[in-house]
């Protein structure tokens, strides 16, 4: 089971560019909305400031330097965090406010109108970020669903009837497991570790039971599927897959940078989690077909 689990992970890395492609498509659509919108919002901000300060003397050179210094001061060794900060509403408001008011003579008389213009710009930018993030999320979810369908087709294909059956069984068993773990925890908070351990053991057993009902019922002995040895092997395989995905992500971080590691690592773990979710089914299916390996 452990060998098959690891093999399934490596084999299904062939689909690596599928979720990456849908994620990139979502990003492209998001940027196609964000960039023109951001340009318009910035133009509106500049027009508002020019209108408000039409009679004021502005030190434009120092204003531009102040804005640039504020952006440069962020920790760009962590690009994702830095970009997140740039689009934080409070940071945007404070930075724009601090970059404009000090370089305008008699700024206090314009402060209210400037604050309103800055807040309008900030709200527009946050809305654009949300829209762009939505498209990126749609791309990620679409990739996840597509690759899960492709991987299931390869290693654990099942009919619609079996899908409905396993969904019903999963809901019943998961509910029972949660109830049991909650009951153990309610007896004493000191039994938290016992409740967690019980949940982990039962989740492995539940996966094997579900896999048996879908792929092994009437073909193999239930005791050959659902036993402590197979639960242990299932967790060993899952742990190895997670370690391999972590190693790949760390390698990308070392060879390229944190941003690449975050994006590519997400794909490595996406495939890992899908394979882990299907490992029990893949094993029982191979057991029923007489091709199972340890």
Commentary on this structure:
- The chain has 294 residues and is mainly α.
- The chain has 11 helices and no strands.
- Helix 1 (2-12) runs parallel beside helix 10, helix 1 crosses helix 11 and helix 8 (192-216) packs across helix 10 (228-255).
- It is elongated.
- 24% of the residues are buried.
Layout of strands and helices, then pairs:
Layout (H helix, E strand, L loop, with lengths): L1 H11 L4 H36 L7 H13 L6 H8 L2 H12 L10 H45 L4 H28 L4 H25 L5 H4 L2 H28 L2 H31 L6
Helix pairs in contact: 1-10, 1-11, 2-6, 3-5, 5-6, 6-11, 7-8, 8-10, 8-11, 10-11
Radius of gyration in whole Å, from Cα? Answer: 27 Å
The assigned structural class equals mainly alpha
Biggest beta sheet summary: none
CA(first)-CA(last) distance: 4 Å
The poorly predicted ranges are: none
Report the average pLDDT across residues: 78
* Count of strand segments: 0
Number of helices: 11
- From N to C, what is the helix and strand string? HHHHHHHHHHH
Strand content: under 5%
Helical residue percent band: over 70%
Shape: elongated
Provide a quick synopsis of the model:
By secondary structure, the protein is mainly α. Helix content is 82%, strand content 0%.
Keyword list:
mainly alpha
């Amino acid at each position: 089971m452990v060998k098959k689990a690891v093999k399934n992970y490596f084999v299904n890395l062939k689909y690596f560019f599928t979720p990456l492609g849908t994620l990139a498509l979502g990003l492209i659509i998001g940027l196609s909305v964000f960039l023109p919108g951001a340009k318009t919002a910035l133009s509106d901000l500049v027009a508002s400031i020019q209108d408000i300060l039409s009679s004021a003397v502005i030190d434009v050179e120092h204003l531009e330097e102040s804005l640039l210094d504020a952006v440069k001061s962020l920790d760009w060794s962590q690009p994702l965090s830095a970009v997140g900060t740039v689009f934080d509403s409070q940071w945007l408001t404070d930075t724009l406010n601090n970059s404009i008011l000090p370089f305008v003579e008699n700024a206090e008389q314009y402060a209210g109108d400037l604050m309103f213009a800055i807040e309008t710009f900030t709200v527009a930018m946050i809305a654009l970020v949300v829209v762009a993030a939505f498209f990126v999320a749609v791309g990620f979810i679409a990739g996840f669903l597509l690759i899960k369908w492709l991987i299931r087709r390869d290693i654990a294909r099942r009919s619609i009837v079996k899908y409905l059956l396993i969904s019903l069984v999963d809901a019943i068993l998961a509910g029972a497991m949660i109830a049991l773990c909650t009951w153990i925890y309610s007896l004493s908070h000191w039994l938290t570790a016992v409740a967690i351990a019980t949940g982990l053991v039962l989740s492995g057993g539940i996966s094997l039971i579900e896999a048996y009902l879908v792929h092994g019922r009437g073909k193999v002995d239930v005791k050959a599927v659902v036993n402590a040895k197979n639960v242990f092997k299932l967790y060993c395989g899952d742990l190895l897959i997670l370690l391999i995905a972590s190693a790949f992500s760390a390698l990308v971080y070392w060879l390229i940078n944190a941003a690449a590691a975050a994006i590519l690592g997400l794909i490595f773990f996406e495939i890992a989690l899908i394979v882990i979710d299907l490992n029990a089914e893949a094993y029982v299916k191979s057991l029923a077909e007489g091709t199972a390996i340890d």
